[in-house]
Specification:
Layout: H1 2-32, H2 39-65, H3 79-107, H4 112-140
Helix pairs in contact: 1-2, 1-4, 2-3, 3-4
The protein binds protoporphyrin IX containing FE.
Length: 152
């Protein structure tokens, strides 16, 4: 069960990164070229929202069943256990929050350029936070790599 969830969580990261890149490209172009907000722009943002919320759900389950997360004060003194207890969840929750806010707040906007701009800025910050979190994971935990391939 845990292995399957880790595999799914690990795989979903690549889908999220690809959708983030597509959205960043489209929203930056839309913002700069003052382009209309199309149905495709909405679909990309919706899919990113669905993927990150699925990732959040799986992450929350893993947080309580993964052997890496040790609920103990001593975990804070070790870089690996501290990463899994507080750093991963904190950075990823901020990133998911920003992706959520980007979609929910831009949906209420009527101006297409303002929508593109909001989506670009919020998702860019989320993208950087996710990259930093994964880089930090690879740095502190020698059993993980930045571009690890999901295996069962
Ligand atoms: C966009 C959001 C997220 C991304 C991109 C992400 C990415 C990752 C990656 C790449 C791994 C390592 C998987 C591997 O080694 O194959 C991982 C593991 C893990 N993640 Fe996340 N994560 C996200 C959100 C979350 C959240 C919100 C939580 C907790 C609430 C969470 C909890 C965990 C846990 C506990 C593990 C360790 C699982 C294990 O190997 O036992 N993740 N995550």
């Amino acid at each position: 069960m845990t292995d399957l969830l880790v595999l799914t969580h690990s795989t979903l990261r690549y889908f999220i990164l690809v959708f983030l890149l597509i959205l960043l490209f489209r929203s930056f172009q839309g913002w700069q070229q003052k382009r209309a907000f199309t149905a495709t722009d909405n679909k990309v943002s919706l899919w990113l929202f669905i993927l990150t919320h699925s990732q959040l759900l799986i992450g929350l389950i893993l947080y309580f069943i993964s052997p890496l997360v040790i609920f103990d004060g001593a975990s804070m003194k070790n870089a690996v256990t501290r990463y899994w207890l507080v750093e991963h969840i904190s950075m990823m929750l901020i990133a998911v929050g920003l992706i959520t806010l980007a979609r929910t707040t831009s949906k209420k906007m009527t101006d297409a350029v303002a929508k593109h701009k909001r989506l670009f800025i919020f998702n860019l910050i989320a993208f950087v936070i996710i990259l930093v979190a994964i880089a930090q994971m690879a740095r502190v935990d020698s059993s993980r790599h930045f571009f690890s391939l999901p295996t069962l």
